[in-house]
Amino acid sequence: MEPKQSLFILIPTLIVLIFLFGCDTELRKTDAQLGLNPQQSAGRKVYDDYCDRCHEPYSTRGKKGPGLKGIYKKPFFPASGMPANDDRMTDVIRYGREKMPGFGQVLSQQQINDLIAYLHTL
Ligand code: HEC
């Protein structure tokens, strides 16, 4: 192939790659990079398994539910306006909300505690 011709392939390919990998996907940080203690990283695993499919942890952008970045930094939860504290959080996790399933049958109290410890780091 002529060198010039190959540019016609190379440049569009690069543009596609930049779109696929450059724009929206941030690299996942390791637990160490996030400075998580053992309980918080146990909670992150729970989060990945049960919450991540509906909630962004490091963005306020909505997925199926609201993004949870800084969830404890505001005084009230985004959907219900309930005070942002561990008791209310435990209720949300156990019983769910309108379009959010409850996890009271799935998660142990220990897992919920670990999860909440992680949520405090967001
Ligand atoms: C199937 C999708 C789905 C899953 C899985 C899910 N959520 Fe939700 N979540 C939602 C939706 C939808 C809302 C908004 C509910 C509403 O409008 O009342 C929400 C709301 C919330 C809120 C805000 C509640 C409020 O009172 O404003 C918190 C906090 C939350 N979820 C945490 C979690 C955690 C922690 C997990 C993992 C155990 C989780 N969610 C799993 C869909 C989900």
Explain what this protein looks like in three dimensions.
This protein has 122 residues and is mainly α. It has one domain: Cytochrome c-like domain (Cytochrome Bc1 Complex, Chain D, domain 2, Orthogonal Bundle). 48% of the residues lie in helices and 0% in strands. The protein is built from five helices and no strands. The protein is elongated, with a radius of gyration of 20 Å. The structure holds heme C. Heme C binds next to helix 4.
Radius of gyration: 20 Å
Known CATH architecture: Orthogonal Bundle
Q: How does the overall form come out from the CA principal axes? A: elongated
User: Helices and strands: which structural class?
Assistant: mainly alpha
Ions, cofactors and other ligands present here are: heme C
Helix count from the secondary structure assignment: 5
Q: What composes the largest sheet?
A: none
N- to C-terminal distance: 52 Å
Number of strands: 0
Uncertain ranges = none
What's the SSE pattern? HHHHH
Helix content: 40-55%
**Name of the level-1 CATH class:** Mainly Alpha
Number of structural domains: 1
Beta strand %: under 5%
CATH topology: Cytochrome Bc1 Complex, Chain D, domain 2
CATH superfamily: Cytochrome c-like domain
Query: Whole-number average pLDDT?
Result: 90
